[in-house]
Amino acid sequence: MNAVLAPEIRFVPMRKADLDQVMAIERRVYAFPWTRGNFLDSLAAGYSAWLMLAAGAPAGYAVMLLSTDEAQLLNISVAPECQRTGYGTALLRHLAALARSSGARRMLLEVRPSNSAGLALYRRQGFLKIGERRAYYPAAQGREDALVLAQDLVSPP
């Protein structure tokens, strides 16, 4: 993985006006992408939604649900051309800092077992497997399980 070029990365709250760009990335990253409605619902519900800009252009985004003492990472995506550059790490660290500042003690997420790059990123950031959800994700042939991972935000990696 290359080092993150921090000066060129900015995080801005996701807005409805950003959804065309978000959806363009979402459709390139996932075989079973979120719909525009999923993002609209998340924004309307007040979830913590962020757009990551690299050199002024959208490079990734994330949606996180913050509750009393937990953060649930619902979607985190980095544009294919920006993957393996450190941007995913920067985005995940941004979310962890936000979650910590809102009082969250841990962050949870689900990930496909087949997502080896995502799993490697999460493990490097201190996420540990705490469970599984059977037949959670749609897949080309039926359904795929999800691994449930958690990161301790009280003692960051």
What does this structure look like?
The protein has a single domain, classed as Aminopeptidase (3-Layer(aba) Sandwich). The protein is globular and about 35 Å long. The protein has helices at residues 19-29, 36-44, 87-101, 116-124, and strands at 9-13, 48-54, 57-66, 70-78, 106-111, 128-139, 142-152. The longest helix has 15 residues, at 87-101. Helices cover 28% and strands 38% of the residues. A hairpin with a 2-residue loop joins strand 6 and strand 7. It has a 7-stranded mixed β-sheet with strand order 1-2-3-4-5-7-6, sandwiched between helices. It is an alpha+beta fold.
Provide tags for this entry.
alpha+beta; Aminopeptidase; seven-stranded mixed β-sheet
Topology record:
Blueprint: E1 9-13, H1 19-29, H2 36-44, E2 48-54, E3 57-66, E4 70-78, H3 87-101, E5 106-111, H4 116-124, E6 128-139, E7 142-152
Parallel strand pairs: 4-5
Antiparallel strand pairs: 1-2, 2-3, 3-4, 5-7, 6-7
Question: How would you briefly describe this protein structure?
Answer:
The protein is 28% helix and 38% strand. The chain is an alpha+beta fold and 157 residues long.
Strand order of the largest sheet: 1-2-3-4-5-7-6
The CATH architecture can be named as 3-Layer(aba) Sandwich
Q: Please identify the structural class as seen in this structure.
A: alpha+beta
Hey, roughly how much beta strand do the residues contain? 35-45%
Q: Care to count the β-strands?
A: 7
Overall pLDDT confidence = 93
DSSP helical segment count: 4
* Unreliable runs: 1-6
Q: What separation lies between the terminal Cα atoms? A: 18 Å
Quick one: overall form?
A: globular
The CATH superfamily is: Gcn5-related N-acetyltransferase (GNAT)
String of helices and strands: EHHEEEHEHEE
The portion of residues assigned to helices is 25-40%
